[in-house]
Amino acid sequence: MPDQNSIGDKAKFCCDKTSSCSKPHQGLFLKQYGAQMLFLSRVYHKSFISVEMSVSSANGTMVIQYRDSFSKAVAKNVIVVVIGISINYINVGLIHTFCKHQIFYTNPRYVLFIHLVINDMIQVTLSLCMFIISYTIYKINASVCCTFILMALIMTENTPLNLACMAIECYIAICFPLRHAHICTIKRTLILIGLIWTTTMLSCLPDLFITLATVPLDFFQSKIFCLRKTTFPNPIILEKRNITYIVYLIVVWFVIFFTYFKILSTAKTASSNAKKAKNTIILHGFQVLLCITNYISPQFQDSLIQRFPENITDSLFAFYIVLMIMPRAISPIVYGIRDTSFRKYLKTYLLCKSPQ
């Protein structure tokens, strides 16, 4: 890590080839050389939180370091913790409500929903822990980071598949109401959830196997900044990820559009339940749209860094809140607030009132 005393207020540039680089201005360098970000990390040092980047160009490698003031770093961590605890508090209320009432845990729709809630809770908790670690401990053991990243990847890929299954359940309930009870049973729903986990684990675990086969075992005893590209650096993994995400998006969007238009045609002549189901499918589609942002987040982050190099920490923080944390709050809204049955019981538990 560069000496803190030698770092300017915004950035420091260090070149491998000193003959071709003499501390040029940040904006001029990015414009002149078209720098490409290779590494991004936050560094806690003395009274500052930093974001450090290694940037390569045709003339050498540079290190750009940005810093949040101590007060701004504390404020960001407080915001993230408050939002994360609030989301998990509501989700715990949803899980408690689900477990306490037979009307919910005997209904396949609510079983799929509560699986999504638990998935979101784990994802929020992991994301919260990794965010705080990045600002405090900075580097952690590679094997611990590997566990965190694998869990986060599995949870991320679970979400769109679960939403697709929920959309199919809505479609069956509205378009085939007489066969719904026979097709959508609790046993089949649990098998479906098992298939979701099997699919995502088969997608994510090869990242670990490829890394084990291509890096020295000492790597897993070292300390690294916990990112997917530092934990699983092999380019084959990147190509596999892109292909996997494209397949997921094609399948999930096909399911969303198919079920939506089928329910839409039924809703024109059917009851208000069909119209409500149509709105639910729209919300599922919006959730899937937010899932897409997770899939393209590396490219989106690179674009932010190139467009707003002087406000990189603020841009990445806004990206993290809007596209990584807030989507986890949609599930409680879809069922916890819109669903009449859930709303009646959830209000009682969240306000700590005695059930009537």
UniProtKB/TrEMBL annotation:
Domain of life of the source: Eukaryota
Localization per Swiss-Prot or TrEMBL: Membrane
UniProt GO cellular component terms: membrane
TM spans (from-to): 77-98, 110-133, 140-155, 161-178, 190-213, 243-261, 281-297, 317-337
Organism: Gymnodraco acuticeps (Antarctic dragonfish)
Listed Pfam families: 7tm_1
Keyword tags: Membrane, Transmembrane, Transmembrane helix
UniProt domain G-protein coupled receptors family 1 profile: residue ranges: 90-335
The protein, known as: Odorant receptor 131-2-like isoform X1
Location (main, coarse): membrane
Lineage, broadest ranks: Eukaryota, Metazoa, Chordata, Craniata, Vertebrata
Listed PANTHER family: G_PROTEIN_RECEP_F1_2 DOMAIN-CONTAINING PROTEIN, ODORANT RECEPTOR-RELATED
GO molecular function, one term: olfactory receptor activity
InterPro entries: GPCR1_Superfamily_Member, GPCR_Rhodpsn, GPCR_Rhodpsn_7TM
